Amino acid sequence: MNTGPAAPEPTPEEEAALERLYSDFDSENLVPLWTEIGDLMPPHPRSDADPHLWRWKTLLPLAERAGDLVPVGRGGERRAIALANPGLAGRPYVSPTLWAAIQYLGPREVAPEHRHSQNAFRFVVEGEGVWTVVDGDPVAMRRGDFLLTPGWHFHGHHNTTDKPMAWIDGLDIPFVHATDSAFFEFGPDQVSDHSTPETSRSERLWAHPGLRPVSDLRARHNSPIAAYRWEYTDRALTEQLALEDEGHPGVVEPGHAAVRYTNPTTGGDVMPTIRAEFHRLRPGTATATRREVGSSVYQVFEGSGVVRLGGKEFTVDRGDLFVVPSWVPMSLGAESRLDLFRFSDTPVFESLHQDRVSVEKESE
Ligand code: GTQ
Ligand code: FE2
């Protein structure tokens, strides 16, 4: 510990005076920089969050047990079970800025409407039969779909089938909590529209590639597309790899196709605090090792492989989730074809000009 500017050996009187000084700092709620600087101003980000993996085969049975034992309804609002990073002192946070949870809705169950300043999305790794109703627009949830609930939009979920459904939620709850900017309001106890259309009104108006309604050409800070369907994501990735086979550009690195979900009114991220992407690796390929400012969460959608996170290495399978804390070196290797959904807090750092990326080396 640095105890201040270099000085000759202190006399016992000086030692005692120094001790009184620190004690007076403490009682006056003052802290000197020189005792804290290593932690406050590190040479590069050193996250308290750990790289960590949660296995789907562990998560889903626990969500099912919660479904049997814990009702969903007004007050608790959602049967959502948060991934709590073991480095974050028992907080239900997957990273310092992000929330990730498995949410479970049994047959015919309803999660009541509410709205909050936190931005939210859903990603579906398996199942169907739930409609999320966003500002009165019923949006079907199916495998591979990425669904948005931007801040301050009313939303409730209802399962219209005799089968349960589970999916993952991502929100900026920790960021909003840390910045004291949370607002919340209850809506109706039921969802406001019980119809079950295949396609939401939002998609019918907005989800046509390269086409916008001339009736509304404003730039918006949230994407107006409520659901990004698997059909389009899959096709985009398939075409990137086909173009690579034909010798044309498009992939991010050899054997690695990737798309970002975007806001068609700006071309930027879907929401101000959350970035979302989908990645596909060919069998047997590995990515370069990267570090990035900000944290990411990945969910394996299909296939198996290995992820290296700092000194740790995990094998991953369908449904497994892992978190990459800020500035932790990360690389992926695909055993079979490996499809991964990813979300991150990068837009926060880009907005504030604190973003950095470092590509360390080609691995394997
Ligand atoms: O589905 O509205 O995982 O409000 C956490 C907070 C889900 C939701 C979560 C929420 C929701
Ligand atoms: Fe919510």
Give me the CATH fold name. Answer: Jelly Rolls
Q: For this structure, what is the CATH class? A: Mainly Beta
Number of helices: 7
Order of helices and strands: HHEHEEEEEEEEEHEHEHEEEEEEEEEHE
Architecture (CATH level 2) name:
Sandwich
Number of self-contained structural domains: 1
The end-to-end span amounts to 40 Å
Strand order of the largest sheet: 1-19-16-21-14-13
Identify low-pLDDT runs. Answer: none
CATH superfamily: Jelly Rolls
Shape descriptor: globular
Give the bound compounds.
2,5-dihydroxybenzoic acid, fe (ii) ion
Q: Report the biggest beta sheet as strand number plus sense, adding barrel if it closes.
A: 6 strands, antiparallel
Q: Mean pLDDT, nearest integer?
A: 96
What is the number of strand segments?
A: 22
The chain-level structural class is: alpha+beta
Describe the overall structure.
By secondary structure, the chain is an alpha+beta fold. The chain is built from seven helices and 22 strands. Strand 6 and strand 7 form a beta hairpin. It has a six-stranded antiparallel β-sheet with strand order 1-19-16-21-14-13. It has a six-stranded antiparallel β-sheet with strand order 2-3-10-5-8-12. It binds 2,5-dihydroxybenzoic acid and fe (ii) ion. 2,5-dihydroxybenzoic acid is lined by residues 77-78, 80, 101, 103, 116, 120, 155, 169, 171.
